[in-house]
């Protein structure tokens, strides 16, 4: 019996094999680029968040914790602490942000509506900075206290962003809106108030006030309307009546 032995020969790579290798190399290249980008982001991570030293500041900023590694979208949390012996009803935290070679400034404003929600002495409130995407990497953020209002109506701070002006407009808008609905309740009844909540409401601010004051006025109008709508949905006409009797905020003695 004859045995035939074929000579050994190397097989040539197929087109599928070549394409598969190219895809693998492409995937490895993409992975390498992504890894480099992540490492670069880690190196430029927003890590320099500072608190400006201020003489006589009645509230302090502490416990800063950076939670985002994206250098163009900084996110961090901090706490506002009231070490004083006076309750705080509103405060504005200024942030000066260094982006590339330029600096931009903004403010975070907190207004506490009722006596039960005051930032009492020796208490703290958690805050968060974020939600803005900048055109370049953020290298530094400096926080400072710009404005403080105490429960007794006294204030502190440079108030460079005029939050006291906006707050005054907001209170004026809220009080004006409550008066409109209270008058309607007296003359037409609570059902008319309930119906009016579903209609467009136009209450004009004082013409001689600043744009910021007018902006606050519009906020006050919307706040009252939302409160009354919420009360109506939650408890019907009786709850609407109770909310209508409430002061706008703690400056008039609102409890809750």
Question: Would you kindly provide a written description of the structure presented here, covering whatever features stand out?
Answer:
The termini are far apart. The chain is elongated, with a radius of gyration of 30 Å. The longest helix is centred in the last third of the chain and has 34 residues. The N terminus is likely disordered. It has two domains: 112 residues, Immunoglobulin-like (Sandwich); 89 residues. Helices cover 38% and strands 24% of the residues. Strands 1, 4, 5, 7 and 8 form a five-stranded mixed β-sheet that branches. Strands 2-3-6 form a three-stranded antiparallel β-sheet, with no helix packed on it. It has 256 residues and is of the alpha+beta class. The relative contact order is 0.12. The chain is built from four helices and eight strands; from the N terminus they run H-E-E-E-E-E-E-E-E-H-H-H.
What key attributes describe this structure?
elongated; 4 helices; 2 domains; 24% strand; 38% helix; alpha+beta; 8 strands; 256 residues; five-stranded mixed beta sheet; Immunoglobulin-like
Main sheet characteristics: 5 strands, mixed
Which fold does the CATH topology of the largest domain refer to?
Immunoglobulin-like
Helicity, as a percent range: 25-40%
Order of helices and strands: HEEEEEEEEHHH
Roughly what fraction of the amino acids lie in strands? Answer: 15-25%
The CATH architecture designation of the largest domain is Sandwich
Show unreliable segments: 1-11, 27-35, 37-44
Number of domains: 2
Radius of gyration: 30 Å
Q: What structural class is derived from the secondary structure elements?
A: alpha+beta
CATH class of the largest domain: Mainly Beta
Instruction: Please give the alpha-carbon distance between the first and last residues.
Output: 106 Å
Number of helices: 4
Would you report the number of β strands?
Answer: 8
Mean pLDDT: 87
Any idea what the shape is?
elongated
């Amino acid at each position: 019996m004859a045995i035939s032995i074929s000579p050994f020969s190397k097989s040539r790579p197929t087109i599928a094999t070549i394409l598969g290798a190219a895809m693998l190399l492409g995937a490895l290249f993409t992975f390498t680029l992504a890894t480099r980008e992540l490492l670069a982001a880690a190196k430029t991570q927003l890590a320099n968040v500072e608190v400006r030293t201020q003489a006589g500041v009645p509230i302090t900023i502490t416990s800063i914790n950076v939670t985002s590694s994206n250098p163009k979208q900084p996110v961090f949390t901090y706490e506002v602490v009231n070490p004083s012996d006076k309750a705080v009803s509103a405060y504005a935290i200024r942030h000066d942000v260094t982006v590339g070679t330029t600096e931009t400034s903004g403010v975070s404003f907190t207004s506490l509506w009722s006596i039960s929600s005051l930032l009492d002495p020796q208490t703290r409130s958690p805050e968060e900075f974020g939600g803005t995407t900048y055109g370049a990497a953020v290298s530094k953020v400096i926080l400072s206290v710009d404005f403080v209002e105490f429960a007794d109506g006294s204030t502190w701070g440079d108030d460079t962003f005029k939050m006291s002006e906006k707050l005054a407009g907001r209170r004026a808008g809220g009080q004006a809106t409550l008066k409109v609905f209270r008058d309607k309740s007296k003359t037409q009844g609570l059902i008319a108030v309930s119906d009016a909540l579903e209609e467009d409401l136009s209450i004009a601010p004082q013409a001689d006030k600043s744009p910021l004051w007018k902006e606050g006025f519009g906020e006050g109008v919307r706040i009252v309307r939302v409160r009354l709508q919420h009360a109506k949905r939650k408890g019907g006409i009786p709850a609407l009546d109770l909310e209508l009797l409430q002061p706008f905020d703690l400056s008039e003695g609102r409890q809750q």
